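1st attempt posting a full record on here, be nice pls
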Amino acid sequence: MAIEVFNRYEKKYRINDMCYQRLRERLPEYMEADAYSQDGGLYTICNIYYDTPQNDLIRHSIEETFYKEKLRLRSYGTAAPEDKVFLEIKKKYNGLVNKRRTRLTLTEAYSFVKTGRLPEYKPYMNEQVLHELYYLIHRMELVPALFLSYRRAAMFGKEDKDFRITFDRDITTRRYDLGLHYGVYGEKLLPEDEWIMEIKIDKAMPLWMTRLLSELHIYPASFSKYGTEYKHYLAVQEPVQREAAPTEEECRDGC
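the predicted structure (as tokens):
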């Protein structure tokens, strides 16, 4: 059964293809590929991020370093209406990431967020998380804001199964066709040879990993996929808004 409640620290790094290959050569001594990443294969994760019409959640996330909160709908690959997906709340408090999620069908998830009505309980749902989601949905006016997908390779520790590393590339975003059933297409967020590596730990990082990062000159880099896309979105929107703004002469004529 997939884990539905996480509490962990996440450290992020931006690396290139060469660095990724060097890590994948060294990590099998200490780690194993997860079920979806056998033989170095990548799998696709698709997300819909929800926000207010004023983008309050992502703006707060960018501005506030102590507490952050996000609501997203996640599928593994393109989802059909009756496929199981995850609706989840992701919070970050003083560096500790807490993620709580429940399974729903794609149809149930769409309806829940849109109408605010709890779905009829089914055995595959997490009832407590459903009520936490209900509270968030009713506390804020949330709408689909962003589609974001990426291809991932993931590994977990041989001795400590809670120690995980993920490698994400081909981060693709769009602010139209905001559904998991449409498929993967849109704009690329990063260069083709760049990866986002995340180290997920519940306690201290293993000493061997610290040494490996130092040997390969890999250093932490603050990075948020949604936050980075939002900053790019603002950079595009601002020139458009300035261009559309009326001139002083137009205002005198009846702005």
